[in-house]
Protein: Transcriptional regulator, HxlR family
Organism: Kibdelosporangium aridum
Amino acid sequence: MSGTNTDVPAVLAHDLPNPVPQDELAVCPVNGLFQRIGDKWSMLVVIMLGKRAYRYNELHRSIEGISQRMLTRTLRMLEEDGLVRREVFPSIPPSVEYSLTPLGQSLLVPLSALAEWAVQNSPTTRP
């Protein structure tokens, strides 16, 4: 929010150049965030891991319609972004468990706010 007008949303408090240069858009952290978590599976995986840690196969069985390849890609991307932790346990066969990092946990609050907004403004729930 702006310091002088607390009614201005934070995203509107800063002036954007007109037109917005493509190179600025490419490095914008907000745009990058939506590209990373805005796909079909990432938000669902973050929400599920927000409840508790999952083993890979357990997570795969819990998400109807996701292929093993897509789950693997999604988990790797979230791990590279620092949102998910992959822990390997030395057993035979090795057991792998996924959980949210503190950074991933911190994403749950704004993600919840965005989800609440989407539900409240869904065409099926609007008056």
